[in-house]
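Render this sequence as a predicted structure.
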Amino acid sequence: MTGESSDVNIPQERRDLLNDVQRVLRVAFLKFENERTQNSQRQAWGRLIVNGVAAAGALVKDSDLDDLLRRIEKLEEMKNE
């Protein structure tokens, strides 16, 4: 995840959450890659990275599903006109 989320279909609340996850992942990657980080701590940072990526994926998936639902509803309205 690089840069700010630019998908206009993502609601602001989810965009804010994605940006928060992005900031957490940046710190986690820095800690994970630090040579002075002990193995047990590196494992914890690695778990945080995996969970953060999964959370970001779920947010994007939810946004995609919401967008798809809106598009279907719009098509149904057009069909009924």
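Summary. The chain has one domain: 12-80. The chain has two helices and no strands.
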